[in-house]
Write a structure and sequence with these properties.
Blueprint: H1 3-19, E1 22-27, H2 33-45, E2 49-53, H3 55-65, H4 68-71, E3 81-86, H5 91-101, E4 108-114, E5 117-120, H6 125-130, H7 134-158, H8 163-172
Antiparallel strand pairs: 1-3, 1-4, 2-3, 4-5
Helix pairs in contact: 1-3
């Protein structure tokens, strides 16, 4: 690969890192063609972009970013590396966990960059599966805010339809 091609690959990787807020570094070495194809299909179905990358070129991108979290991922760039780009923070983690539950050794998690934090090591998979997306967090906050209001409305509806009943219900709450 000549310098121009390497520069183009680095430029493409930099653009993809800017486009996707989350990515996972995985090892898919040893998967045969059939399993690799099945993994790619599942990734596509989940909205995950799977790409095999050269460690040295990805390392250059991480170092050039100026982001200490990304720079910390350079140490895990050994062996074969595939990168999973995604919009949903926990989608690749769930996919990797699903494959591992099916008694597949690969893909194996090396590390991840999720919600501006670096996670290093396969032992972080459970934490990454539990990460909630922005929409899930918003739904949780709305549910928490609605809970007290629902209780008051319910109490008011169950009380007698008199002013005295409403006042009594409010005093009890």
């Amino acid at each position: 690969m000549n310098k121009e091609m390497k520069a183009q690959v680095i430029e493409n990787l930099t653009a993809e890192l800017a486009q996707y807020p989350n990515f996972y570094l995985t090892d898919i070495e040893g998967l045969n063609a059939e399993k690799t194809s099945a993994l790619r299909r599942e990734c596509f179905g989940e909205g995950i972009k799977l790409e095999v990358v050269k460690n040295t070129l990805l390392g250059h991108v991480f170092k050039a970013s100026g982001n200490p979290e990304l720079e910390s991922l350079v140490e895990i760039l050994k062996g074969n590396t595939a990168i999973m780009f995604c919009e949903t923070a926990n989608a690749p983690a769930k996919l990797i966990q699903k494959w591992q539950k099916a008694k597949e050794e690969k893909p194996a998690l090396k590390g991840a960059y999720v919600q501006e934090c670096a996670f290093i090591g396969a032992d972080k998979l459970a934490e990454l599966v539990a990460v909630k997306s922005k929409n899930e967090l918003i739904a949780d906050v709305i549910a928490l805010l609605q809970s007290p209001i629902k209780q008051v409305v319910s109490a008011l509806q169950s009380a007698p339809q008199t002013v005295a009943g409403v006042v009594k219900t409010l005093e009890e709450k």
